[in-house]
Amino acid sequence: MTTPEAASLLREDEVEFTAIRAQGAGGQNVNKVSNAVHLRFDIRASSLPEELKARLLQAKDQRITAEGVVVIKAQQFRSLERNTFAALERLRELIAAAAFVPRQRRATKPTRGSQKRRVDSKVLRGKVKAQRGRVGDS
Q: Theoretical Cys-Cys bridge with 75: which of 22, 108, 116, 134, CB 3.0 to 4.6 Å?
């Protein structure tokens, strides 16, 4: 499963948004307007494939609770719509990262030529080191 495919598996009706007041500076406006967004996504109750759910639940991410709910807080922008979009984008990135499966490494044996080159270079280095010392001490 490739990364763009995994992000497209997310159904927006399974995501719950809650508007909250943003922290930090903002003048008088910060106490009146709820511009920040809490996104909640229940992994176990979602329509994602079981394999992807398992990978998400195993992920060591502080945004995933013990109950299997992803909680993302977005407060970067001053508008609720942009923060909602940013939170959804971060959730898509989290799902895409969990969908990426690294290729299995196949163990290979060094070739005889590479082994010989390695030993030859070690012997040569040993000879260089053996020639070091005081000049004239024979």
A: 22
Sign of CA dihedral 3, 49, 57, 83: positive
Query: Tokens 């060094």 identify what position?
Result: 110
Alpha helices in the chain (DSSP H): 3-8, 50-58, 80-99, 112-130
Q: Contact 53/43 with Cβ under 8 angstroms?
A: yes
Q: In what order do the strands lie in the sheet with 15-20?
A: 15-20, 36-42, 69-74
Q: Would you state the structure tokens that stand for residue 109, as one six-digit string? A: 């044996």
The Cα 84–Cα 91 span in angstroms is 11
Determine the Cα–Cα distance for residues 22 and 32; give it in Å rounded to an integer: 10
- CATH fit for domain 3-99, picks 3.20.20.150, 3.40.710.10, 1.10.510.40, 3.30.160.20: 3.30.160.20
pTM over 0.70: no
Query: Which pLDDT tens digit goes with each residue over 76-123?
Result: 888 888 999 999 999 989 888 888 888 999 999 999 999 999 999 999
The residues pairing with 41 across neighbouring beta strands, listed in sequence order, are: 15, 70
- How far is C-alpha 132 from the geometric centre of its chain's CA atoms? 51
